[in-house]
Amino acid sequence: MEFSEEVFGQRIRKLRQDMGISMENMAAKLDVTTNYLGKIERGMRCPSLGFVIRLSRILGISTDYLLMGEQEEEKSINEMALTLAEQLVLFAARNAE
After folding, report:
1. Which positions ≥6 away from 70 have C-beta within 8 Å?
2. What residues contact residue 3 under an 8 Å CB cut-off, 6+ apart?
């Protein structure tokens, strides 16, 4: 499965709405503007690794699920970190233009 900015953003929006958190409240918890959060939710911005980690903690969801939509079981922390790093490098390369 390949990473999709649009699907990533949709996943964030759905999780946020399912938890009953307004965009304003989520943006405040993440210390970002609602405009920035909206762009991420629409797949128009590439969030930082720190943003993804903060978001996963706020939502109580793994970074694997946020980024790829699937929970990976039985992986070591090193394997998960490598997978995340590889996906972020690919994502950043696609958005460097």
Report:
1. 1, 64
2. 67, 68, 87, 90, 91
C-alpha to C-alpha distance for 82 and 58, rounded to whole angstroms: 23
- Mean per-residue pLDDT for 38-53? 93
Residue 43 has pLDDT above 80, yes or no: yes
Per-residue pLDDT tens over the stretch 55-87: 999 988 888 888 888 765 545 666 667 677 777
Q: How far is CA 42 from the centre of its chain?
A: 12
DSSP 8-state code for residue 47: -
- CA distance linking residue 65 with residue 56, whole number of Å: 9
pTM score over 0.90: no
Closest CA to 57 of 83, 80, 29, 33: 29
